[in-house]
Every structure is written in structure tokens, then in C-alpha cells.
Description:
Helix content is 52%, strand content 9%. With 371 residues, the chain is of the alpha/beta class. The longest helix has 25 residues, at 285-309.
Amino acid sequence: MGFDQFLGNAxxxxxxxxxxxxxxxxxxxxxxxxxxxxxYTLAIMLAQTMACLQHPLSDGLPDFCxxxxxxxxxxxxxxxxxxxxxxxxxxxxxxxxxxKETRVLVQTHxxxxxxxxxxxxxxxxxxxxxxxVQRIYRLPAEASRAVYIxxxxxxxxxxxxSLLKILEEPPHYxxxxxxxxxxxxxxxxxxxxxxxxxxxxxxxxxxxxxxxERRKDWKPKQxxxxxxxxxxxxxxxxxxxxxxxxxxxxxALVILYNATGGGSRDEEADYGALFRVTETYRAGxxxxxxxxxxxxxxxxxxxxxxxxxxxxxxxxxxxDLMTELARVAQTIDVExxxxxxxxxxxxxxxxxxxxxxxxSLDSFAVGLARP
Length: 371
């Protein structure tokens, strides 16, 4: 165990470890990067390092042992989805009068608190920040530092304002870590009071090498594809639902080929095949999830078409479709891609208004057909 297990972003990790070594860890820091880049894993590792009872060094900098009582208890928070599900289930077991006053928190160690978005709105709520306020001004119980990890930047307005008050006068022994895919979602006053550390995307070759060790069930071509679809995020690559993506992409290709003739200037649209696909996108939570996956896959195809148009075909993600997409790119222009992006936005807006998904997709697909 230790930082040698963390993949990529060596410079950022080193700067954070140097801050711990110099006792200059910021009271508030933002770990920014794409989903799956390792922000939460790194936050837990930093908490373990500051709480570790054995204080090991590696490369001359603080590390964590992974086996002492503090390290092992903090590590119990790593499967975040499981811990959040347990917290939600525990709240459901409470009396109705107590449910309203109970917010979802994850705390496997007295001095490390994880604050995830609270369902059903999936926002950081005022009650959660107030819980942090109640705890943060108490001295740590078993470690020299206390760490509070907010796993989302989606704050209710009152919650964000309450957090800002803590950041104005934070106790010297506490650290607030905010995980952000988009730092612009945070109040400017919160950003100005926090130190920002960015986790960049890993190159596909490095991700592919990791997948060769961790996903031996995938063939080399599948690993190469996922390494590019993961957009530089190793966590996203390891847990990538390849089967689900390919199914959604196949439906997206039906829409694309229907609109463009599959790259043939003479082939006419097959609306029968199109409507057979869109008819399967029904109402309900499952239908919403399926539609979101389809739109994501279609957006990925549009990005690749734009790259091919700009002469950067070596950067496309759907590398197994290079020949087909190159053929389609020859029959469309940039304005068609812009119109397709606007159409995607309209479908997403329709989903939020609960419009019938199959009809929304039909309208989108027919509207894309070349004149």
C-alpha cells in the first residue's frame, strides 16, 4: 500500500505530499479533474497519510502504511457507493420524524468524514454542512488532523454559503477537501479561499497497460477502445461497461446512418429500422437511463466526426469504427455537426420535461436527415 499505487499525476501528488511534510497542507483544497481520474482515491490517501500511526516515508516524502488501525478504518470509506448505500438504508430505518433531520454522511474513522450528495435531489444540503460545522471545531479524536471530503460541487445555495463561513475561519487542525469535475460550479468566494490541485487525463497507452493487468477478460482491441473512451480517467476505464456502451452505440449508429445514408451519397434513409430502434426507448427510470446512454454514445460519434473533419483522425475515440466514420465524414459538413449537437441538447431538455422519449428521438433523427 502507498502512493506508488496511485496512477498518474505524479507532480500533483508530489506537491501534496510535500505540503504534508512541511506542515503546510491547505485548510481547504479542491481536487479538480474528470470523473474517474482518482480524486476520491487521492483524498482518502491524503487522509490516511495525515492519520497514519507508523509515519512511513517513500521517496523521502510522507506516505501511509495501509495496515495500522487508522489507515485500515479510513480505507473502509473507499468503496464509496457501498458506504453511501448503507447510510441511505440506515436513514430509511429511522422513524419518519427523524428522517427529515438526518443527512447522509460516511464516517468509518472518527476524524475523517465524507459528505456525498444527499438523495433524492443529489445535492450537498444545508443539514450536511451544519453537521460538518458541529464536528469541525472539535479537536481530532485519534489523529493529528481531521479531514472532511465533499465528493460533489453540487451545493444548495444555503449550503454553499454555510460552507463559506467555515472557510473564512477554519480551525488549524482541519482540512476541507472538495472534489470537482467542474470548479466553475463552486462559488467564486469558495474557490478563492481554496488551493486548487488538478488531476490531468492519463494517455491512452498508460490506461491500456493498466487494463491489460486488471481486465484480462477483454481482448486487446477492446482494451484499446476503452482506453480511449475513458477520456483519460483510469477509474472510469477499469469499471467501464463496454457491453452497455456498444449496445447504445449500435442504436446511435442506426440514427447516424439513417441521417447520412451510412456514408453513401445515394443510399436513402430506412425509417423502418429507425423507428424499430426508437420504439424501445420507453418511459420510466430504466428508459431514462437507456436514453442518456444513447445520447452519450451519439455525442462520442459526433466528436469523432468533428476530429476527422479537422484532420485529427488519430485522436478519435471509437477507433474500431475509423473506416465507417471516415466515410460518413465525407458526406457531411461542420454545420451538420453543429445542428446535431443542438438536436442532442433539445432531446435532453425534453427528457427533463418528461416528453415521450421515442417521439423525441424520432424527431431528432428525422431532423438530421441530409437535404
